[in-house]
Structure formats: C-alpha cells, structure tokens
Amino acid sequence: MKINNRLNSIEEYHFKDLESIKEKAKSDGKEIIDLSIGDPDLPIHPSIIRGLIDGLDGEEFNKYPPYDGLKELKLEVIKYYREVFSVNLNLEQVIILIGSKEGINNIIPAVCDIGDIVITPHPSYPVYRTSGKLWGCKTYNVLLKMKNNYMPILEEIPLAIARKAKLFFINYPNNPTGAVADEMFYKDIISFCEKYDIVLCNDAAYNEIIPPNKRPTSLLQFDNKMNCIEFGSMSKTYNMTGFRIGYAVGNSKVIKSLLKIKSNVDSGQFIPIQKAAINALKLDRMYINTMRKIYYERKEATCDILDKHNIKYFRGEGTFYIWCTTPKNYTTSEFCGELLKDYGIIITPGHIFGNMCYNNFRIALTNTREYICNMLSQIGYYN
Ligand SMILES: Cc1ncc(COP(=O)(O)O)c(C=O)c1O
C-alpha cells in the first residue's frame, strides 16, 4: 500500500511509544514510577463529575454540540478572564476545543498557507513543530537558553524569517523548562509580532501551575489591540486530561478562521464534558491554591534530592516539570534508559522537545511526594 511521504519527516508521538515500554516493564514484574507524561495524578473534584452526570440528564445531550462550544461554557471562560486577568472578551473571541492540542494543530492551517513559516520555541512541546510540518509549513526554531531564563531573544531572529513568518508559538509557563514570562517580555514580543504582522499564540496550558498565592498572567493582559491568541486547557489545572477539553481566546478574526477549520474537520466536544468544564471553572480559587501547594512541595523535595545526587536543573517557577541536565558522559537516551533499567524510573529524554536537547531530560512531578522521593533517592551520585 502506498503511504504518503509527508509522515517520513515526523517521529511517532513519544508518549504513544512509551505505553508499550511501560507495559513490558510491568509484565516483567518491575516496580516502575512514571514521571514522564504530564498527566496529573491528583483526584478529580466531585463537582466536575457532578457536571458530567447532570449533563447526561439534559435534553439532546447526545446530539451534535455547537461547533464553537456551549454558550454557557464560553461565558464561563469570559468570566474567568475578567475576574482573574481583568481582560474583557466577547463571545466571538472564544472557542471551545477538544483539548488545547486540537486548537494548536488547527490554528496552523487557520493562519498559514503551505510553505509559510511558523516560529516555534526550542525546546518545546513537540506538537508545534510536528503540526507545522504536517500542514506543509516551514518551522523556524528560536532557541530558549538557560542563561536567558528560557526566554527567546527576539533580536536573534533573522529579519528574513520575521518578515515571512505568519505564526509564532510561545508557551509560558513553559513545558519542559518551567520558565515563566514577565510583563516586559509579553510587551516586547507583542510589539515584535505587531511590527512583522505575525499571529502570536501563547499556549497557556499551565497558566495556573505556579507557586501558591502567586497571580497567574495572561498574554492578553498586555495585548491592547486583541491581536493575539491564547490557548487554555482544563487538563492540567483540573486533572481532566482524559476529558479532552480546552479553549482558545483572543483575536476574533483568527478565532473565526480556527472555527472554519474545526467545523470542517471535526465537531464540538460532547455536551456533558462541556458541562463538567463549566463546573471546573466555577470552583473556588482555594481549590487552585491547594493544587499549587502540592506541586510546589513536590518540586522543592525533588530539587533537594537532585542537589544531593549532583544533578543540575533549572529552577523554573511554573509547571510541574523539572528540566535537568544529564550527568557527564551520558546522552539523554542513555541516562533515561539507565534510570528505567536499574531503578524503574521513567522520565522523558530531552530530544523529544527538540533535537538539540541531547543533554537534558524532564521529570514530571505526577506522583506523590513520598513516592517520587523514595524512588529518586535510590539513584547513583553523579559528577
Ligand atoms: C505545553 C502543552 N500544551 C498543550 C498540551 C495539550 O493539552 P490538552 O490536554 O489540553 O490537549 C500539553 C499537554 O501535555 C502541553 O504540555
């Protein structure tokens, strides 16, 4: 059978491949701890489950949902932006997605033609690059370096790239580094994108995963002309990865274009799931602070262990990840392989986030503090 050539330029999705490695380790009777994928272990709030169940009682819950999402959920997103970020949105500036990954993929054809340039951070969540390639775009990697706190240096982007680029993805709080952006950075990148007429998208999947009592920020707080787009996700904040629900907010022309792609290739999310998301957004902010405390304590404890074992890392304030440097004389694959083989610890090799990250790996703090510490304490001492 003839299969297209397009797929040759992209790898299998790492976390899909990992499932078979995990199954094998389990069937060998090995005790394993999975600190690879960012799939929260925390329990789901009962009110979210209640929303889902109540949704099944509603009329026409089994029908095709509205393509752009339930009005009630869009209004809840609008309220969230108003109360938390003091950003005012209207209904045309919001779209509900089947997880933010769906929107990240679909925004590429919504904005770009074949051959256009998409600027993507490196390292980054791999979907920006793979989706860019799948849609026939060229991707330009802007390097995020530890010495710059993993912020892109906009002056390093060649003029020819800036002039041709149509889309610029950023992701703060950042996966995999944990870096968070400040007001000055957001203002600078907004004016850079305005100057070169580039659609700026912030992937804010981790916007609430920051230290307790800190204020989250949104790109849209600094976007007076509402030119940009921000993606939001219920997955990480509300432990709803399997529900597949997220949203995009911002420029109405881009949202309309995203809806045009979306309505042609898929439909709206199942109504009871949207009802569950409404209840999630209605939860008291105390819920969010409690969740933040848990991740914060895990991060502190894990950093202490890494220090003891002489493993270097970046102390990012955001996300539940720690971005580490592989010990001397190891490649990332060798080190991750050794941790799995000798200690049953699954972590993510750096090259998943970009081909220059051969001396990094990422730890996801998605298990209890005690278990993470017990398992990591067994590993050797490195220099
Ligand atoms: C940076 C980033 N953006 C988006 C997503 C996708 O989230 P969702 O579950 O909303 O599709 C992930 C998932 O890990 C992520 O790490």
Automatic annotation (TrEMBL):
Major enzyme class: transferase
EC number: 2.6.1.-
Gene3D superfamilies: Aspartate Aminotransferase, domain 1, Type I PLP-dependent aspartate aminotransferase-like (Major domain)
GO molecular function, one term: transaminase activity
Cofactor or coenzyme needed: pyridoxal 5'-phosphate
Pfam annotation, one family: Aminotran_1_2
Keyword annotations from UniProtKB, A to Z: Aminotransferase, Transferase
UniProt xrefs under InterPro entries: Aminotransferase_I/II_large, LL-DAP_aminotransferase, NHTrfase_class1_PyrdxlP-BS, PyrdxlP-dep_Trfase, PyrdxlP-dep_Trfase_major, PyrdxlP-dep_Trfase_small
Domain Aminotransferase class I/classII large: 31-374
Record PANTHER family: AMINO ACID AMINOTRANSFERASE, L-GLUTAMINE--4-(METHYLSULFANYL)-2-OXOBUTANOATE AMINOTRANSFERASE
Family under the similarity heading: Belongs to the class-I pyridoxal-phosphate-dependent aminotransferase family.
Name listed for the protein in its UniProt record: Aminotransferase
Gene source species: Clostridium tepidiprofundi DSM 19306
Lineage per the UniProt record: Bacteria, Bacillati, Bacillota, Clostridia, Eubacteriales
